[in-house]
C-alpha cells in the first residue's frame, strides 16, 4: 500500500495501515462493551492505523487479554480475516476425498 501498488489505497496524502491495537482513551455515549483503559485490537477496511490516535466504531474493537501481546492480537485479527475471506469467498475449501 505504501508503494501505491494496491487498489485499496486512497489518493495521497493518507495515513496507511488497516489493523492496530491500543488503549481506549474515551468512549462514546451508550458504549458498554469497553471502557477507558481497556486494551483492544482491531482490523478496519478503512486505512489510518499508523495514526497516533483513532476514533473507531465499537463493533470493530476486540478486547485483548493481558496474556496476549497487543501487536500480535492486531496481526492475528487481520491475518485471520484474510484467511477467512480466502477460504470462504476466494475458493471453497473441502475435504480432498469428498467430491
Automatic annotation (TrEMBL):
| Pfam families linked | ADH_N (PF08240)
In alphabetical order, the GO MF annotations are: oxidoreductase activity
Q: Where are the bilayer-spanning segments?
A: none
**InterPro entries, per the entry:** ADH-like_N (IPR013154), GroES-like_sf (IPR011032)
Coiled-coil segments:
none
Q: Which UniProt keywords apply?
A: NADP, Oxidoreductase
Q: Where is the Alcohol dehydrogenase-like N-terminal domain?
A: 4-41
| Protein known as | Alcohol dehydrogenase-like N-terminal domain-containing protein
| Source organism of the structure | Lactuca sativa (Garden lettuce)
Amino acid at each position: 500500500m505504501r508503494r501505491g501498488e494496491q487498489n485499496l489505497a486512497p489518493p495521497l496524502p493518507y495515513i496507511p495501515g488497516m489493523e492496530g491495537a491500543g488503549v481506549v482513551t474515551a468512549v462514546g455515549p451508550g458504549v458498554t462493551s469497553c471502557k477507558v483503559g481497556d486494551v483492544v485490537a482491531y482490523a478496519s477496511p478503512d486505512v489510518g492505523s499508523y495514526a497516533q490516535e483513532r476514533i473507531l466504531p465499537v463493533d470493530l474493537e476486540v478486547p485483548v487479554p493481558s496474556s496476549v501481546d497487543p501487536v500480535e492480537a492486531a496481526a492475528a485479527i487481520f491475518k485471520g480475516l484474510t484467511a477467512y475471506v480466502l477460504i470462504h469467498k476466494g475458493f471453497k475449501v473441502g475435504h480432498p476425498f469428498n467430491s
